[in-house]
Amino acid sequence: MNLQPLSNRITVKTPKAPDRIGRLFIPPEAQETYTVCQAEIVAVGPGVEDQRLAPGLRIIVRRFGSFKHSDELWTLYARDIYAILN
After folding, report:
1. Domain presence at residue 14
2. What CATH number corresponds to the domain at position 29?
């Protein structure tokens, strides 16, 4: 699927949730909420003003208010990004 977001929108991909964190087991019910705020930028629209936002960057995003393409791909506004993960 080739997606090109329009205006100030960004398409992101959510990572796969780990089965464990240290010795703590994460049940399947909690895995979806674990990764819903973490994402990797896949494509950036032409209206995005922040030059740091580029494909491959890992970010923290707003949990609701985005368009879901599939289980992994979402499109959201650039203003819905809260932080950049280093």
Report:
1. yes
2. 2.30.33.40
